[in-house]
């Protein structure tokens, strides 16, 4: 393989960040993930001695990659922080609602025994289980997003570590939102089943509308991050196994 006038090998040229940004990966963090994946793909096919080759500025390809991607790493960190903060607010809100609902159960409690009035009804059990799941998953999601916000954001963290945490955090958050909607629907069944049964379906639709909007807006990001991260992890594991 030939060198250019600056002594750059093929791997050096790949390490230089260009103007191209894949449209299917929105956000600077996913762009940085793509840059790392592309660099590592080329790194596997070039001769081994190219890894330690120095250009005219006495830089290896890895050092050049680090220098040219500093700004993208900073922008990726800001993007991840904004995403994690917004998701943390939602997770904290769901956890607060789920925790409050556990003490203010639908129908109230019996005066003598203190047991819930609807304890023996099936919708109440659905409410109790869904509320517990929502509380657990929302707190888990909150912890994950807090771990992302306190990460050191090293260059290589954008390859697997940060995207994997983001996927896990979004997964638990989506499940927490869905569980909260199930708990709310079960509460409506208990409270309006007798008097307003004719309005049950419209009320369910209106109640689920905010959660549906949130899921619809965040789901494309979740799919993209999850797909490219899991796909690359599977490829890496398969390559290691073949070795």
From TrEMBL:
Keywords: Membrane, Transmembrane, Transmembrane helix
Keyword Phosphoprotein: no
Pfam families: PGG (PF13962)
PGG domain mapped to chain residues: 78-190
InterPro entries per the UniProt record, alphabetical: PGG_dom (IPR026961)
One Gene Ontology cellular component: membrane
Segments traversing the membrane: 87-105, 125-146, 166-192, 198-223
Entry superkingdom: Eukaryota
PANTHER family per record: CASKIN, PGG DOMAIN-CONTAINING PROTEIN
Name of the protein: PGG domain-containing protein
């Amino acid at each position: 393989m030939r060198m250019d006038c600056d002594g750059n090998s093929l791997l050096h040229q790949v390490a230089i960040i260009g103007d191209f940004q894949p449209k299917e990966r929105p956000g600077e963090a996913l762009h940085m993930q793509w840059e790392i994946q592309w660099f590592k793909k080329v790194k596997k096919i070039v001769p081994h001695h190219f890894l330690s080759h120095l250009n005219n500025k006495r830089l290896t390809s890895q050092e050049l990659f680090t220098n040219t991607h500093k700004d993208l790493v900073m922008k990726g960190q800001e993007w991840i922080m904004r995403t994690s903060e917004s998701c943390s607010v939602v997770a904290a809100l769901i956890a607060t609602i789920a925790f409050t609902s556990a003490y203010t159960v639908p129908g109230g409690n019996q005066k003598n025994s203190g047991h819930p009035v609807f304890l023996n009804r099936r919708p109440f059990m659905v409410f109790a289980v869904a509320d517990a799941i929502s509380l657990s998953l929302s707190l888990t999601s909150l912890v994950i997003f807090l771990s992302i916000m306190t990460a050191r954001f090293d260059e290589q963290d954008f390859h697997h570590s940060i995207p994997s945490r983001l996927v896990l955090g979004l997964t638990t958050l989506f499940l927490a939102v869905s569980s909260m909607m199930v708990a709310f629907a079960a509460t409506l069944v208990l409270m309006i089943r007798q008097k307003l049964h004719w309005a049950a379906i419209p009320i369910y639709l209106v109640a689920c509308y905010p959660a549906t909007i949130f899921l619809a807006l965040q789901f494309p990001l979740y799919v993209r991050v999850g797909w490219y991260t899991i796909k690359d992890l599977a490829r890496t594991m398969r390559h290691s196994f073949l070795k």
